[in-house]
Amino acid sequence: MKDTLLPDFFLGFVRIHILYHASREEVFGLELMAELSRHGYRVGPGTLYPILHGLEGKQFLTSHKKLVNGKLRRYYLITLKGKKALAEVRSKANELVQEINEEPQ
């Protein structure tokens, strides 16, 4: 069970982290990989970029390109739809944390 469920759970957490950070400021892939690594998630480009593209495709994120040191870098920012989703996730996460931290009866 551990081998099949944990990756699914962690990918959900990764998506939430991305939405959160994109709500604070515009973010780019390498920066997100470093931030996620800080939280113990080992996410490579083959995982991260499809997640970013999926979140953008669902209109939770928007992106634009900037020229940085002679290279084009894609930056992501949360949309209004993404903000609403993040607010709902925050509410559900708070409820879940309270519940799983309750002492068993």
What is the rounded distance between the termini? 26 Å
Largest sheet: 2 strands, antiparallel
Order of helices and strands: HHHEEH
Mean pLDDT: 91
Global outline: globular
**Please, how many helices?**
4
In the CATH hierarchy, the third-tier topology is known as Arc Repressor Mutant, subunit A
> What structural class results from the helix and strand content?
alpha+beta
Report the top-level CATH class: Mainly Alpha
Strand arrangement within the widest β-sheet reads 1-2
Gyration radius over CA: 15 Å
Q: Architecture, according to CATH?
A: Orthogonal Bundle
The share of residues in extended strands comes to 15-25%
Q: Please, what is the CATH homologous superfamily?
A: Winged helix-like DNA-binding domain superfamily/Winged helix DNA-binding domain
Parts with pLDDT < 50 across at least 5 consecutive residues: none
Q: Roughly how much helix do the residues carry, as a percent range?
A: 55-70%
Number of domains: 1
Number of strands: 2
Description:
It is built from four helices and two strands; from the N terminus they run H-H-H-E-E-H. The chain has helices at residues 2-24, 29-38, 45-57, 80-100; strands at 61-68, 71-78. Helix 1 (2-24) crosses helix 4.
Give a quick set of tags describing it.
105 residues, alpha+beta, two-stranded antiparallel ribbon, 4 helices
